[in-house]
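Deliverable D4.2, example record:
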Amino acid sequence: MKRNVQSVTIDPDDKFFYCGTTTGDILKINFETKLLVVYGPQKNRFTLGVETVREMKGRLLVGAGNGEMAIVDSTALEKRKLASCNLHGSIRSMDIRGNGHQIYCGTSENNVYRINIETAELSPDLLKTCHGSAVNDVMFPKNESSLFATVGKGDVRIWQTGNGKELRRIEVPNITCNAVAFSPDGMSIVTAWNDGKLRAYLPESGRLIYEVPHAHHLDATAVVITECNRKIISGGAEGAIRVWNIDLSNLKKPTVSLLATMKEHKCKITAIKLRKNMQQCATASEDGTCIIWDLERFTRSQMVMANSLFQCLVWNIDENQIVTSGTDRKICYWEALDGSLIRQMDGSMSGSVNGMAISNDGSKYYTGGDDKLVKVWDYDGGIVTAVGSGHSDQILKLALSPDNESMVSVSRDGAIAIWTI
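Output generated by the structure prediction step:
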C-alpha cells in the first residue's frame, strides 16, 4: 500500500524514527539500517490520517485529521490507546512542555489547546482561538468598548477587547456571514448572510430572536440599525438598499416588515453609514458610486462617482462631507451637499483600501487594506501620522472603540489585531 508521510519524529536515542501517514498508521523505521521495523495500527487506523506525531518517553503523541489526540505505545504501535481526547479541527502541530506533563496542540480551526497528560483522562483547555478563514466584518456596541463582534464563515463571535478572549460563539454551519451590527441598546446583534437572510441574536445567550428570509435576492452584504431600534437598513450583492421596520410589540418574537427598497446601485453594497439624526445614510458600492439617501422619503439626495470599486466610507464630524476609498487606492473627500470633490490623496502604495473608521472628535481617521498596514491620518492635514504593521494578509475591515482608546482590524487570513490608539 502506498503511503504519503505527513509528519516525522525521532526518539531521543536516535535509534528509530516514526512517520505519520495519510492512511492513518505510523511507520517505525530503524535509523541506521533505514529498514521498516513495524507499522501500526494494523486495524482501526486513525481517521483522516496522522497529521502530527511526537515521541515522548517511550510513548507516541499522535494527532489525527479528525481531531483525535491519542497517546500510544511506541513499541507495538497498536490502536490500544493509553489515553485520548477529541479536539475541534485536525491537529496540525503539537509541542511538549517541560518534562512532558503538558502538551500544546494547534488545529486547523485556529484553536490552541493545552492538555495535562498526567491525569487519568485527558481534558483539553482551549487557550486561544480565532476564525479559520476570512473575517468579513467587525463591530463594537454603541457605548461599550470592552467587547466587540466579528463574523466570518459559519459563525459570529464576541470577544473581550482587553485580553482577546472569546466570550460567545454563534454557529450557523455552511454559510458565510458578511456583516454585523449591534442594536444601539445592545440587546441584539443583527447579521447579514450570503444566503440572503438577516438574522438577529441575543448577545449573551446567542439565541436567535428573528430572521428575515429572502431579505436580498443575492448575498446580504451590509447592515446597520437606527438609533430608535425600530429600523434596519441592509444592502445586498444585487445593489438594493432595503429599509425594514421592527415591530417590538411582542418582545419575545419581534416581527420585521419591509418599508422601502431603494435601487440605484448596480453592484454589491460594501458599506452603509448613518447620519446622527438618522434621516440620511450614505452607501458605498462596487459600481463606482456612493449615494446619500433620504430615509424619510426613501429617495436619493446626492451621488458621487469615481473610477473605483468603493469599499468604505465615513461621515466627517460635521456630517457635511463624506470620505471614501476603494480599489483605486485614492482617499477622496466629497461635499455632501452637491457631491463635489474637495480633496484626493493616495491612501496606499499598493492595493485597495478596504476599511475606514473615524475618531469621535473627527480629527483623525484610520484606514487598512491590501497593503496589510493600518494607517492613522490627520483629517485636516491629509497626512499619515502613524502606521501599524502586524497583519500578514489583506485587511478587510476596521472598527474603533466608542472610547477611542482601542481599534480592531481584521484580515483575510482570519487574524484579528487589537491596537492601542
